[in-house]
Design a protein that fits this description.
This protein is mainly α and 196 residues long. The protein has one domain. Helices cover 66% and strands 0% of the residues. The longest helix has 29 residues.
Length: 196
């Protein structure tokens, strides 16, 4: 495999992979713009795993900052960050189960790593939740980024699970999202002091 040139951005690195999408910034922007080629690249490129982890952590941190920044409460920031991370994990796990076991298409073949890399980058719009640190922008930021992340999840699922049907990817993401909301509601019922 040929080595690709290092990016001048400071975020890029050389990898032994044939992809033209090599820098973290290129992947982040492409995933945010819902570029299916980026999700295909992420599915196949195991060297992007640490970048995927970073995207989920940044998105979770942005959720936490926007939750607690208005009152500068460290506990709210920590709980918001952990909540964002746990929500992503539950949604990703449920999408994997639903997409590969309940609603697969005949050609669906995916391993956990492939799907998690694509789903992690689908969380990229969530990084913009940090704008919610401004109280007047908190609700609009969460609303817009949530819909944007759902759209990105649909693209990620369609590519990672090799679906021919976008409607199937929408169904898988919707079922996973609804089950994640149910888990969050149950968690809120059983642990109200921590969640509130």
């Amino acid at each position: 495999m040929r080595r690709l040139r290092e990016s001048g951005s400071g975020l890029g690195f050389a990898i032994g992979y044939h992809s033209a999408i090599v820098t973290f910034r290129q992947r982040l922007v492409g995933a945010t713009m819902l570029d299916a080629r980026v999700y295909e690249d992420l599915e196949a490129n195991t060297s992007a795993t640490w970048q995927a982890v970073l995207v989920v952590l940044l998105s979770s941190l942005a959720a936490g900052v926007s939750t607690g920044a208005a009152k500068l409460e460290a506990q709210a920031i920590i709980v918001g960050t952990l909540g964002g991370f746990v929500a992503w994990i539950s949604w990703a796990a449920l999408i994997y189960l639903v997409g590969t076991h309940l609603l697969p298409e005949p050609q669906t073949r995916a391993n956990v790593g492939e799907l998690l890399r694509t789903l992690a980058f689908a969380a990229a719009p969530g990084i913009l939740r940090v704008v919610g640190a401004v109280p007047a922008l908190a609700f609009p930021a969460f609303a817009v980024t949530s819909v944007w992340m759902l759209a990105a999840m649909v693209v990620a699922v369609r590519q990672a699970l090799d679906y021919r049907s976008t409607s199937r990817a929408i169904a898988v993401c919707a079922v996973g999202w609804l089950l994640s909301l149910a888990i969050a509601a149950i968690t809120g019922i059983f642990f109200p002091a921590i969640v509130s």
